[in-house]
Amino acid sequence: MVVCGDVFESNQLAPRVISQALEVMRGVGVDVYLLPGNHDPLDAASVYTSELFLAEKPANVHVLDTAGRHRVAPGVELVAVPWRSKAPTHDLVAEQLAGLPADGTRRIVVAHGGVDMLDPDPTKPALIALEAVEDAIDRGAIHYVALGDKHSRTQVGSSGRVWYSGAPEVTNYDDVESDPGHALVVDLDESGAIQVDAHDVGRWRFVTLRWSVDNARDIADLGLNLELFPDKERTVVRLALTGTLSVTDNAALEECLDKYTRLFASLRTWERHTDIAVVPADGEFSDLGVGGFAESAIAELKELAAAGGESSADAQGALSLLLRLTSGAGLGGPVKGGAKKRGAAA
Q: Which GO terms label this protein's molecular function in UniProt (predicted)?
């Protein structure tokens, strides 16, 4: 098993994290080869040279801390390309490919970083040149390139031999990461023929859900959609909601979101992409059976809610809360629920 960089988020880790990670690797049952990447480079503070790591590292865990060829089985070599700093000044992969012989040895390059074809930025000197990689493949010097850095599974070029496996667990929302949560199983036979298969290993989902809510039916449909999600306890939802609602419907929306906030690992509104206008409908508060001061206060809140401006949102919230508090009971009845501030994703 090869892990192509960023095994750890940084070199500054709690001892518990290091110990638990090594304990998991101990139980894998195969040799594990770890490549230092940009988050955990082989610098002076490297986690891989720490006293704790060296003391607890299992026998089946190997750090690819030396650039170049490593024999791992008869006729099989790993070509390691570790990072020694967070910002290399040249293409580390091309450096290792230069002069590699095509001598029948099956070689797997284990590298980290961006590829120029996917990120053609001339200001990034460390980008991996795909042309040099494909040339080494074509002449039989290397047979597969395992890459780390991108969190989504990605094939690079057309050879079928250059892949980012992506992060084994989801780390961002689905509109940012298109295909995370995989491990790649690569079958490289003695003739050099290759088969690459992806296996789902991620257990979490991060979902961005965009929904228009303009009436009670839209809110019911939103609730049904949320209800159909499996494994809610391992699902994070970011809601982008737009629409215009009456105060009554907005209260129903709040009740819906409150329910599913309790069920999901996290459910938040995406503040930058959420825009809901609350406009009191005619006669919406006529059946509350109030008069005097309370009636005057409701009338004033309705005017503020419809006027827009800084006080509009507060007035809309107050009216929505009023309806929720009096739902089916009147002002003097028991409280069935209350509005609460829900986390917002910026």
A: exonuclease activity
